[in-house]
Amino acid sequence: MAILIAEQLTDKYKDIVVKIFATDVDSAALTQAGKGVYSAAITKDVSADRLEKYFIKEGNTYKIKPHIRKMVIYAQHDLVKNPPYCNMHFISCRNLLIYMTPVLQKKIFGMLLFGLKMDGYLFLGSSENPMPIIKNLLVVNKKWKIYKNLEAKREMRFDAFSFPDLLDTKHIPSLFGREDVTKNTNIILSEAVNEALITTLDYLVVCVDEHNNVVKSYGDTTKYLLQKNFTSGLEALLPQPLALAFNTLSATVWKTNETSAVRGIKINNGPSVMEVQLSISPLAISKGEQKLLLVRFSEDKQAAPTEGSVLFDEKIYADQYTLNIEEQLKELKEKLHSAYEQLDASNENMQSFNEELLSANEEMQSTNEEMQSVNEELDTINSNYQLKNKELLDINDDLNNYFRSNINGQMFINNELLLMKFSPGTVKQINLLETDIGRPISNISTNIKLETIIEDTKQVIRDGNIISKEVETNNGKWYQVMTMPYIQEADNKKNGAIVTFNDITELKSVQLELDKKNKVLQRINADLDHFVHAASHDLLGPLANIETSIKVMDEIKTDDPVLDEFLGVMHSSIKKFRALVTDIAMVAKVESDMIVMEMVDMDELINDVEWSLQHKIKSSGAVIIRDLNTKQVYFSKKNLRSILYNLISNGIKFKRDLNPVITIHTQMQQDTVTLSVKDNGVGIAKESISKIFSLYGRLHQDVEGQGIGLYLAQKIVNAASGSIVVESEVGKGSKFIIQFKTEAGIVPLSEN
Prior knowledge:
Blueprint: E1 2-5, H1 11-21, H2 27-34, E2 37-39, H3 48-54, E3 55-58, E4 61-64, H4 66-69, E5 88-93, H5 102-115, E6 116-124, E7 137-141, E8 146-149, H6 172-176, H7 178-201, E9 203-209, E10 214-219, H8 234-237, H9 240-256, E11 260-269, E12 272-283, E13 292-299, E14 309-311, H10 314-405, E15 409-413, E16 419-422, H11 453-463, E17 467-472, E18 478-488, E19 493-503, H12 505-555, H13 561-591, E20 598-601, H14 602-612, H15 614-620, E21 623-628, E22 632-635, H16 637-653, E23 661-669, E24 672-678, H17 709-719, E25 723-729, E26 733-741
Parallel strand pairs: 5-6, 11-14, 21-23
Antiparallel strand pairs: 1-5, 2-4, 3-4, 6-8, 7-8, 9-10, 9-13, 11-12, 12-13, 15-16, 15-19, 17-18, 18-19, 20-22, 23-24, 24-26, 25-26
């Protein structure tokens, strides 16, 4: 509804009128408003003082005082077609434009703006938005959609409203031509001719519908009809004889659809009696339109009856009227009975419907309870979503701060090789700007000498592997570039790649220094190994000469016991010296990794060791038990023999007062071989176990040996990336457990 307030409205009454007109009212209320009467309902927000000041109370309504009423003009106005009003202080157009198309809204907004004065106010509905004219308005209240006009100069385009059709030059001739004049003249002439003929013939012609209501009449009605007001039923307007005749004839015509007439109907015409002829004919009209009867009244002046007419007999027509009334009554009773039946059926339907409504009401109540429960759940979900949103904001802040503080560069690339995000540290290696986000990485230049980022990213996206490379930049710095797939945790799907740049310049410098030092140390180790081998070889030559000389001295017979004692000491020293030189050469060989790996048959190896120790085994009564689950082991045969020889020899040397029992066990578990040697000797104290593997670490000085065997065994096992441990208890014996990995593709054989 749009209400326009005239320019002469004074400021004194603006507030109260605006207060009233701001309320949405219907057309009936608007009509009442035009009369100066308002319902109390639309003034509920107005205080009692204002009501008494500006209104006159009349019953339950309020009437605006005349001096206020005269200030307001009420008029119908078509916003679409009519020209706009001008110089309006205030225009209220609330909840009207939302029912119009955007084009029509734009047109009407232009007209409203044209009608406003400078600093005039426009008041719109909550669902309306003056976007087409917002540049000319100042928002006074955004919530209540109140705007102020800023433009003093008003412009209106001619397409804002439509001109009358008279301006269309194509139709001007037809508007003033003879065609329309003739048409109107024919209508008036036809009415005049009909009226003249009927008057000349002294007829009264009445058109009635199927309910006997008068549609149109021609002629003088005062002669034949009763002069009654507030009725259009023809039967009620007729004198009794005419009413009887009309009732009977109309019923006959409706049934036969043929003309029927009667004459000699006597009615009073003032002080005299007049005979009337009545004729009723069906009136032919267009197909599908309302059925009509043409009733003709005329004074019966003829002595002889006309063709098709009968003489009126009041008794016969009264009887026929009674019969018609009875038939109508019977028909009405049948209709009433049918109506009662329909009413009963409707009552039953209403009862059923009422029961359904009660059931539906119960369902609605249960649904309402469910909705309340769902509402509570939605509130809970909403609270959870708010918490999730807060967590997401915190996580986003953490990520942003992480990117800001990350000195190492990171780039996020999607499956189409488009840059999605990067950290500030990335600009050291790649020339990036914020505007590069969304661009292909192939269009971005880098500072890397040999750049393979694109190829690596494609490979990572395709295969899902991680690629790590060391690259050098143009400024001489080194970076480790790691390219890995970007995984979405929700569906474990690869969606691009992450490229990380780690500055390893300092590490690279240290690595280069270490490489130089390693090369120097390797040369030194090679020289030491050469020296050890050369020294052991050179020492064995003079040692052999000394042994030969001592053997020659042994053959010389002497009776001096002191000399014999010195010769024995020399024999023992030379023997120990040879063993020491041999062991030193073996240690050097182990440390230099000059070892040949092969498949070793454990039974054959143990047989060899037993043959070498047969004198000790026989003299001590030692028993060697073989528990070999794995018959063949991939290892250095010489080194494994040295380990077994040393462990079996120690088991015999460090025996108790019992015969030595030595158990050798082998076991294969996945790719690890376990070799254990257990004896029943004197055992080793826990605090002394770490000492036995040190060079020259001897626990018993009264037993022969140099303390280098177990040291050599540990060196051999460690060189093979294995381990050796000891389980021992004093007085019960010791168990040496050796574990080492088999080479790739080498599977030791085991018994089934």
